[in-house]
TrEMBL record:
Name used for this protein in its record: Glycosyl transferase
Residues annotated as domain Glycosyltransferase 2-like: 5-115
InterPro entries attached to this UniProt entry: Glyco_trans_2-like, Nucleotide-diphossugar_trans, TPR-like_helical_dom_sf
Keywords: Transferase
Source taxon at top rank: Bacteria
Molecular function per GO: transferase activity
Pfam families listed in its UniProt record: Glycos_transf_2
Amino acid sequence: MVSVSLCMIVKDEEDVLARCLDSAKDFLDEIIIVDTGSTDSTKSIARRYTDQVFDFKWVDHFAKARNFAFQHATKDYIFWLDADDVLTQEGQQEFVKLKETLDPSIDSVTMDYYLAFDEYGNVTSTLKRNRLVKRERNFQWIGAVHEYLEVGGNIFNSEIAVIHKSEHHDTDRNLNIYEKRLSHGEELSTRDLYYFANELMDHRMYERAIYYYEKFLKTRKGWVEDNIAACGKMADCYLELGRHELEFNSILRSFQYDRPRPEFCCRLGYHFLQKNELRTAIFWYELITDNQSRDTLGQVNLACSTWLPHLQLCVCYDRIGEYNLAYHHNELARQYRPDDQLILYNKKYLEPLIGRGDDEEK
């Protein structure tokens, strides 16, 4: 069985730190907490779980803080979490199995990162992160903001999920770090251009965000998933600005980088649905249902590859009078959201049109 060190960086996390550590402590062999300047009870909470609590003077650089934490690890593998992350009981059990069965030749283990859920508990936004890495490989964190762990070698994709359960967030922190770097004349890296644009968009600075997304894409050095996401985010900016032709062009631009992704097919389907060009809308929605592949490390909106295209196809087929197909797709959507009132309304509305009673077999 391999041994595991947990390495975390924290600041003012008294509301969530115990929840995080309680979800992980039973399968860990070592816990290392690096505090970057807490003024609340974060450190005293951390000391309830470990005596390895260290201070790191904050220098507006997340990678330096994480690398400092990694330097204190002594076990075979290093696992990292943020204070507002948790593992479910199932995830904890799977982690124990992973420790027992992990091939020592594995250099990094990816885990799913669940970012958002709908009102029915379905995961709506997810991505994969390299979460568990072999200590002796000395993998390093890169980047002052939106840092990433640079890994290589033999990578295993696990089914373990980490859930992000944010309770609070300093919404200006990252933006201010970028602005300070620019004011000092620093040239942003390709990756930083993308994440700075994201911060600008989150702060509703849409014109400036578009400028930096364009600057990012023009480098032609971005990760393909970031390139695709930048097109979608530019489309969002243009939508907010009411510039719909440029929004449409930004959606199409994503196809330069890879096959059409479900999120963009849904957007195109909706675009043509709004124009009442129903056959074209159907084409884009059905393209998703014919291709369910999700083999990407980038962020995924699962609604767009599960229930949403089926619900929209129900609308489209109803409008052209093909009620059996409308009912069929509504039922497929209902598999994902059995209590959705809109889907249940559609079911009740369509059943008489196809000669089906409530008591018939599904």
